[in-house]
From TrEMBL:
Its main location: cytoplasm. The keyword Transport does not apply. It catalyses: guanosine(37) in tRNA + S-adenosyl-L-methionine = N(1)-methylguanosine(37) in tRNA + S-adenosyl-L-homocysteine + H(+). This is tRNA (guanine-N(1)-)-methyltransferase. Specifically methylates guanosine-37 in various tRNAs. Homodimer. One of its GO terms (cellular component) is cytosol.
Length: 232
């Protein structure tokens, strides 16, 4: 999979060289390229922002550098992601969808955002997604793009060594994950649930399912189908 990132802070993305994604990158499974938006400016100060039309606080990212950057990066296969708190919610389903695409382009806005005409113009030549991580505000799209790249990237075949580890995870079946334990069987007086040491695989599977339901009901009841919430 090819991923391009456009940002005024390319150094944020050095973490993509670490751990699983780093290995996928050096192994050629993920081809990730990070671009400095300021390289697409032409003035001495490499200006990327200006005052908002209509007035108000903060600055807006100018359309011209974004247009030139996307002219250079887009292909016929591109899906363009604009991370923004005003976007649709990014979920495990979105990650799965993105992981199946040929070419992702992440456009990281700063300040009060990117001139909306950049998004509208990009829609005329590529599929465009405005996506949010959740209902809180970050200083820019960089950390959000990183989260989306990691969530989608680890679902690309070959990135995670043992694909079975992707199956029994939180959100893959719509429920939170069951709790995990390892040795020793007793630690600081706390026991590993005996069923997990019983060798009874059917009983273990049933216990894990019950734990998933209990945890989801307690922590994230809105994830459960209505008839399973216990509400009237
Ligand atoms: Cl995608 N961007 C920003 N700036 N803030 C966010 C976000 C994205 N998702 C949640 N908060």
């Amino acid at each position: 999979m090819r991923i391009d990132v456009v940002t005024i802070f390319p150094e944020f993305f050095s973490v993509l060289d670490v751990s699983l994604l780093g290995r996928a990158r050096s192994g050629g499974v993920l081809d990730i390229r990070v671009h400095d938006l300021r390289d697409f400016t032409h003035d001495r100060h490499r200006t990327v922002d200006d005052t908002p039309a209509g007035g108000g606080a903060g600055m807006v990212m100018k359309p011209e550098p974004w247009g030139e950057a996307l002219d250079a990066i887009l292909t016929l296969e591109s899906t363009v992601v604009f991370p923004t708190p005003a976007g649709a919610l990014f979920t495990q389903g979105t990650a799965r969808d993105l992981s199946e695409r040929q070419h992702l382009v992440f456009c990281c806005g700063r300040y009060e955002g990117i001139d909306q005409r950049v998004i509208e113009h990009t829609r005329t030549r590529a599929e465009v997604l405005e996506l949010s991580l959740g209902d809180y505000v970050l200083n820019g799209g960089e950390v959000a793009a990183m989260a989306m790249i990691e969530a989608a990237g680890r679902l690309v075949p070959g990135v995670v060594g043992n694909p079975e580890s992707l199956v029994e995870e939180s959100h893959e079946d719509g429920l939170l994950e069951y709790p995990s334990y390892t040795k020793p069987a007793v630690w600081r007086g706390l026991e590993t649930p005996p069923v997990l040491l019983s060798g009874n695989h059917a009983a273990i599977a049933a216990w894990r399912r019950e734990q998933q339901l209990e945890r989801t009901r307690r922590v994230r009841p809105e994830l459960l189908p209505h008839e399973e919430t216990g509400d009237a």
